[in-house]
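Q: Can someone sanity-check these two? First one:
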Amino acid sequence: QVQLVESGGGLVQPGGSLRLSCAASGNIFSINTMGWYRQAPGKERELVADITSHDSTNYRDSVKGRFTISRDNAKNTVYLQMDNLRPEDTAVYYCNVNGRGRSAYVIAWGQGTQVTVSA
């Protein structure tokens, strides 16, 4: 099937930056929407940002102006550049990909990467 491998999480001070990467491989022919979600302890998973195959982007209000989502279609990779990080950004971040395999529509999730913003 489809495998998503995430990287780039870690511990950062408030105001710092991180860049998350997510590479898709396996049974994927074309990718439609790619996105990033996050989940903090005791909270529901929430959309952070997503990007369509036509590079239309959507951001959660709390990250607008601070985060930038982008994609490299040749590499089947989506990125999330996170600047001016705040403690409330602390969560496990999950990559999500929606696309088409050779014989079925596919939805895949990454393993999650921890982002901790601490003073």
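And here is the second, same format, sequence then tokens:
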Amino acid sequence: QVPLVESGGGLVQAGGSLRLSCAASGRIRGRYAMAWFRQAPGKSRESVAAIAWSGGNTYYKDSVNGRFTISRDNARNTVYLQMNSLKPEDTAVYYCAARIDSGLGYLSEHEYDSWGQGTQVTVSS
């Protein structure tokens, strides 16, 4: 497991943008896939985006595809989620997660064993 800390959440109007960051507290040894999940009030946690260790492969939930972009900087042990054209339905606590990259299941919550504490994203109408 790798300790993770999210940042960058906040309040934004619909149509606005936010950039979330997730930093590992220590150096990551091995090839980790990383992902973003979110949980809205009264709903279960769902996948948002994921990225393979190399950064070459990315995966998105259909509802955010084209609006959100996941990227990573392995030298800084950090993954980012650029969120554009935000909608009220994007309001949720966003969590970053990490796991050893197996090449499969990038958007499968149960595959991840390292989790951050979450950062609140609120999108107003």
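A (reply): Looked at the second one. The first strand starts at residue 4 and ends at 7. The CA atoms of residues 63 and 93 lie 16 Å apart.
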